[in-house]
Design goal:
Shape: globular
CATH class: Alpha Beta
Structural class: alpha+beta
CATH architecture: Roll
Distance between the termini: 34 Å
Largest sheet: 9 strands, mixed
Number of helices: 6
Length: about 260
């Protein structure tokens, strides 16, 4: 089964290889993602995030889900030394960098709970897979028709951050200016919550972000800096057929 919908401002595709597909599994995924968008988007005036931004709610009044999202945002702010921050001065609260990975990960867990064993859930290029192996390509940051590498994943998630899709939208919150030093950062992690937030924070950190991400527990990294140099961790689950793509090895933290 393959199903694609436009949710959270991006295409979300779901492929389920189980036969038969558990009844209602796909419906539950897209219903949850629409709910997450309605509740946490800063672009919807009636969302919980917008109400918090306008002062109609205090952080003590928000629901348990938004409280968890804000807790994750703070964890990554502290871990990145302030480079990653969802409260950039003059812009208000925008937790999208955490909400997408967190909500898509929860959607994947709905599939697992429904008994789905083999699936691929792709939210605008950030991917979580169940079962495997699945092959996931890393797009070249300067040429949409090329891949830098192909990963082979089983029960894992991968996210990429860069400026090539939405322009210079990732800021280094320490300066309030667009992040520099990297063209793209891809992170493989056990969950999309970790992969997405880590990739965004690493990109915000700039050149130092590659080693920072590589030092995070259970994370593997593939990055291209502005000098077009490829950097990756030794444990990156790269598909053998794409091993011609050479890289400088960045020490990782390990499990």
């Amino acid at each position: 089964m393959i199903r694609v919908e436009h949710v959270m401002g991006l295409p979300v595709s779901l492929r389920i290889d189980d036969t038969p597909v558990p009844a209602g599994a796909a419906d539950a995924v897209f219903a949850w993602l629409r709910q997450a968008d309605a509740r946490f988007s800063p672009f919807r005036p009636d969302s919980e995030v917008s109400r918090l931004n306008r002062g109609e709610l205090s952080t003590a009044d928000v629901g348990a889900d938004l409280a968890r999202v804000l807790e994750l945002c703070e964890q990554y702010r502290r871990a990145s030394g302030g480079a990653f921050d969802v409260r950039v001065p003059g812009r208000g609260l925008d937790p999208c960098a955490v909400v997408k990975g967190w909500s898509v990960q929860l959607a994947a867990e709905l599939l697992t709970a429904a008994g789905v064993r083999r699936f691929c859930l792709n939210a605008g290029g950030d991917v979580v897979v169940g079962g495997g192996p699945w092959r996931v390509g890393i797009r070249h940051p300067e040429d949409a028709g090329r891949l830098c590498a192909v990963l082979e994943l089983t029960d894992a998630a991968v996210a990429t951050s860069g400026h090539y899709e939405r322009g210079a939208h990732i800021l280094d919150a320490r300066t309030g200016r667009p992040a520099t030093g990297l063209l793209s950062v891809t992170v493989v992690a056990p969950t999309l919550t970790e992969a997405d937030a880590t990739a965004t924070a690493a990109f915000a950190l700039g050149a130092e972000g590659v080693a920072w991400a590589a030092g995070r527990p259970h994370c593997e990294v593939f990055a291209v800096d502005t000098a077009r140099k490829v950097l990756s961790t030794a444990g990156l689950p790269r598909h053998a057929a794409n091993s011609r793509c050479t890289a400088s090895v960045v020490p990782g933290a390990g499990p």
